[in-house]
Amino acid sequence: MKAALVTEWGRHPVYTDVPEPQPRDGAEVAEVEASALTNLTRALVSGKHYASKEIALPAIPGVDGVARLADGRRVYTGALGYSGMMAQRALVDPAGGVDIPEQVDSVTAAALPNPGISAWTALSHAAAVKPGDHVLVLGATGVTGSMAVQLATAMFGAETVVAAGRNTERLAWLRSAGAHATIALGEQELGAQVADMHARRPFDAVLDYLWGEPAAQVLTALTTSHPAAHHHRTRFVQIGSMAGPTLPLDAAVLRSTGITLSGVGIGSVPPEVLGRARTEALPTLFGMVADGRLELRTQTRPLADVAEVWDAGEPSGTRVVLTP
Questions:
Q1: Sign of the CA dihedral 163, 164, 165, 167?
Q2: DSSP state of 221
Q3: Of 66, 97, 123, 162, which one has the fewest beta carbons inside 10 Å?
Q4: Coil, strand or helix at 298
């Protein structure tokens, strides 16, 4: 069969022939209909991700996707043993799939779970957002950041959601999709904007998809704009590092405010929370997409183009999905 295959850490996959997967231990071979090209998928086979040690090369990438089971069911699932979903067929656990509503096409269904579960986990578990909260999403114009903005309002009832990002067109759209205010990075001074907003109405939660210098500016602004005598707990949740893996931060920031730092990623979320994300949150997210309450932009490309799209980057706010 045809598949994407990575043979060397940090190199893009090649479209080639590979052996057919073989059923074993209750798992079955399913026909893959779509697999999303996510940052996690890229990172795992870069050799630099902290979970890369679980992968042996050569490997077929594709953390998750949509597959058609032998009984005809169309499910969102992950491949077993990292055989990968970027192939014509993959070995999957038929009991571990999540059924997809007929109203949701396979490309959208493959693209939704990665950003949807990540945003839901950050909002519900790490940030513990509740109705009436004031939330800042740093890096809101990306796929997952945009999802977090929408869910913060529509699912978690945040009173105010501020979206910060570089793409002004996406920021304008977010104003119609759940954001109550926006900050255009590169055009508006991030620290000053956050400091002013935090002084008027303290942020309860910050979801950070950037890290690096933007995160340092926000953390400093949260400290300087709110008097230490008026304690307010701001839950700062680190999720992505598109602006850099490190940041300069004065130690006094964490001593002089109620900021708490945590992260969302592989290994940082309890299994029971991830279980609820799949069994409770994901069906709800599929339903929200089906009835138009949640929007996710996708770009479909044939699996044969995997080498071309792998290093091309992701169109702003759009998830690339590969189909065999």
A1: positive
A2: H
A3: 97
A4: strand
What number is the average pLDDT over the span 297-307?
Answer: 96
Structure tokens at 57: 């090369």
Structure token pair of residue 85: 């979903």
Contact 84/4 with Cβ under 8 angstroms? yes
Q: How far is CA 240 from CA 56, 140, 215, 254, in A?
A: 25, 11, 11, 20
Kindly state the DSSP code that residue 278 receives in the 8-state scheme. Answer: I
Q: How many CA atoms lie within 13 A of 11 on its CB side?
A: 13
Give the Cα separation of 284 and 120 in Å (integer). Answer: 11
**In this predicted model, what pLDDT tens digit does every residue of 196-230 receive, in sequence order?**
999 999 999 999 999 999 999 999 999 887 655 56
**DSSP per-residue string spanning 136-175:** EEETTTSHHHHHHHHHHHHTT--SEEEEEES-HHHHHHHT
The packing angle between helices 113-121 and 143-154, to 10°, is 50
Instruction: Give me the phi and psi of 227, to 5 degrees please.
Output: -60, 140
211's CB contacts (< 8 A; 6+ apart) are 238, 240, 241, 242, 243, 244, 245, 246, 247
Average pLDDT for 19-26: 88
CB burial class (10 A; 0-12, 13-18, 19+) of residue 279? exposed
Please name which of 191, 251, 255 lies closest in space to residue 225, comparing C-alpha atoms: 191
Give 126-149 pLDDT, tens digit per residue.
Answer: 999 999 999 999 999 999 999 999
Residues with Cβ within 8 Å of 90's Cβ and at least 6 positions away in sequence, in order, are 21, 29, 30, 32, 60, 62, 65, 67, 79, 80, 83, 84
Rg (CA), the chain: 20
Encoded tokens for 186: 């590169």
- What is the rounded distance in angstroms from the CA atom of residue 149 to the CA atom of residue 74? 29
Place of tokens 């959208």: 108
221-246 burial: b if 16+ Cβ within 10 Å, else e: bbbbbbeeeeeeebbbbbbbbbbeee
d(CA 100, CA 274): 18
